[in-house]
Specification:
single chain; mainly beta; SH3 type barrels; three-stranded antiparallel beta sheet; 1 helix; YjdM_N; Alkylphosphonate utilization protein; YjdM; YjdM_C
Length: 112
């Protein structure tokens, strides 16, 4: 029995894979395989100790961090409340008292 999805347009059960797409031989409809999309949705952000981070968590900075555009550094032990997880290299958006809004890398924080 086939585990391939039926065609979303004509509901044909005779679909086949062609590279990264599914193809329906009856109506010639092509659509992408959603494996990559489900992997992206299941992206997990972890702190320096391997704990899973979520939106709204409180984290603590584990290393002195130089802040671009500021003359001072972000000290070890600085508590950051109510984080937001985002895509990109700096995967945490937050507001820090005395510094304002900034992005942090999850490898430099631990869950509080």
């Amino acid at each position: 029995m086939s585990t391939l999805p039926s065609c979303p347009q004509c509901s044909s059960e005779y679909t086949y894979e062609d590279g990264t797409n599914y193809v329906c031989p009856e109506c010639a409809h092509e659509w992408p395989q959603t494996v990559a999309a489900s992997e992206e949705e299941s992206r997990v952000v972890r702190d320096a100790n391997g704990n899973v981070l979520q939106d709204g968590d409180t984290v603590v900075v584990i290393k002195d961090l130089k802040v671009k555009g500021a003359s001072s550094v972000l000290k070890v032990g600085t508590k950051v409340k109510n984080i937001r997880l985002v895509e990109g290299d700096h995967d945490i958006d937050c507001k820090i008292d005395g510094f304002g809004s900034m992005g942090l890398k999850s490898e430099f924080v631990k869950k509080a």
